[in-house]
Amino acid sequence: MATLLRADLLTDLSWHTTGLPSITRALGTDREEQMVYVVDEKGRLLGIDLRAQRWRPYLQSAVDLTGTADGVILGLDSARHPLRLATRALTTYHASVDRGTVELMAAAGTQLVAFSPSGRVAQVFDEDGEARRLKLPAGPLTGTWAGDLLAVTTDSGVVLADPSGKRGEPQFLSVRGDPKVTAFSPSGHRFYVARGKGDLVMFDRFSHENLRTLELPGPARALRVDRTGRWLLARPAKGDSVWVVDLARWDVFATVFSPWAADLPEVAGGRILIARDGRDVISIDLTSARPSERSRLAGAASDIFALVPWSPAPPIAEVAAAAPPPEADSTDESVDSIPVEQPAAPPPTALPIPTAPSAGAAASVYLQVASSQNIDWANAFASQLKDGGFPARVLNPKASGDPYRVVIGPYLTRDEADAVGRRLGRPYFLLTPGSGDT
After folding, report:
1. Angle at 167 between CA 162 and CA 170, to 5 degrees
2. Residue partners of 342: CB distance under 8 A and separation at least 6
3. In angstroms, rounded to a whole number, what is the distance separating the alpha carbons of residues 53 and 35?
4. How far apart are CA 291 and CA 256, in angstroms?
5. Of 397 and 130, more confident
6. Following DSSP, what letter does each residue of 344-377 receive, concatenated?
7. What's the whole-model pTM score?
8. pLDDT tens digits, residue range 212-228?
9. Residue 433: pLDDT band with limits 50, 70, 90
10. Do residues 398 and 435 touch, judged by C-beta distance below 8 A?
């Protein structure tokens, strides 16, 4: 059975499926289609329809299944042809992936990458076949959420490669101090390198400039950045604990004792850390002066969790209407999570999330948080902010050569917009678009 919970309170939202097989992995959520994709114990890809509260198998013989940040599913068929499932439409690519172990990763548009660490090559595919090959060293692989840049961490630096080939051959960025692993910000404008000497380095993606260095409690072997770009989770080289890094303040905010797995720990809605604690799962409020446990779900540590930017509207509305008003400075930007075979919990209590005024209100103040000449990247970043609970959109250029602007809002007053900006925890400035903006 699958159950929806509020991420902040870990309480049941009275949404359930029945007959679901035993699940081993959660791959991601297609927000547009409102589908959650998981893998069962037989290796089949299953889709859970959030609106219909039903599930069905999609791919029964695919292997190497993986998911992207926006819910696209990648895999290989029995002939090692790449597969791409997006908005419930399956694409089978014409070329084949080389034999051996590979990591699949989405590239820009409908392209995808199959990286072979042993062969030290990345095959880039489009729907017509293999588009190109990139020579890459062995090492931990990561990529931007938009899929326009790959990074392989070696013991002497980071290799950066554009899968489209538009930026030429892969570039090597020398990094001293024994680099271990790299992670990109959601926008892709920054990347973070954890070094064996026990620190974290922030680089500019375009200039490769070393922007800042933060001392960690020790070396880290894995990094995970939340969807809003506010928090980075670091897995120590030894032991079961997690370092929570506040990227806005550039400090180690907390150390939480919790094991590291594919699904947890994660930050929901830019403010709530979900983590395992022994046999339980807990939520921790990261907005308080000191991290504090907000809720605990007993006996749920063996379940599989996935953050889902969706909630069943009628139950939420009913509970919100009956809930007492929050404290003056209280906000809630959390999203829901889906555990598998989750025991029932007490009824939920809802708090408001930061939203823009209704269409009828005379709102005109936006928070501009990014700009780019790349419309695909701008749309992807706006979608990531929406997943974090923020009313984001893309404003089109005013003139030829102007960038696409990613904004949040609109809001009625500058003070209201500033309050949301402070909760966002990333650089912004206030914008009042002209009548020609769309």
Report:
1. 55
2. 1, 2, 3, 5, 12, 297, 300, 303
3. 10
4. 9
5. 130
6. P-PPP-------PPPTTS---EEEEEEEES-HHH
7. 0.76
8. 999 999 999 999 999 88
9. low
10. no
Q: 337 φ, ψ to 5°?
A: -135, 155
Local confidence band at 292 (pLDDT 50, 70, 90 cut-offs): confident
- Provide the 10 A C-beta neighbour count for residue 301: 19
For residue 119, the number of C-alpha atoms closer than 13 Å in the C-beta half-sphere is 15
With bands split at pLDDT 50, 70 and 90, how would you rate the model's confidence at 337?
Answer: low
Token pair in block for residue 309: 């930017």
Residue among 85, 6, 95 at smallest CA distance from 39: 85
289 vs 180: CA distance, rounded Å: 31
Contact 349, 323 (CB under 8 A): yes
Distance separating alpha carbons of residues 29 and 306, to the nearest angstrom:
8
Q: Quick count: other Cβ atoms within 10 Å of Cβ 82? A: 27
Per residue in 96-153, pLDDT (tens digit) is 999 999 999 999 888 999 999 988 999 999 988 999 999 999 999 999 988 999 999 9
Round to whole Å and give the CA distance between 437 and 10: 41
Q: Cα separation of 80 and 100, whole Å?
A: 10
The DSSP symbol for 183 reads E
Question: What pLDDT, on a 0 to 100 scale, did the predictor assign at position 430?
Answer: 82
What distance in Å separates the CA atoms of residue 288 and residue 279, rounded to the nearest whole number?
25
**In the numeric block, which tokens belong to residue 368?**
């501009």
- Provide the Cα torsion 108, 114, 118, 121; round to 10°: -50
Q: How much of the chain, in percent, has pLDDT values that exceed 70? A: 86
> Which DSSP letter does residue 314 get?
H
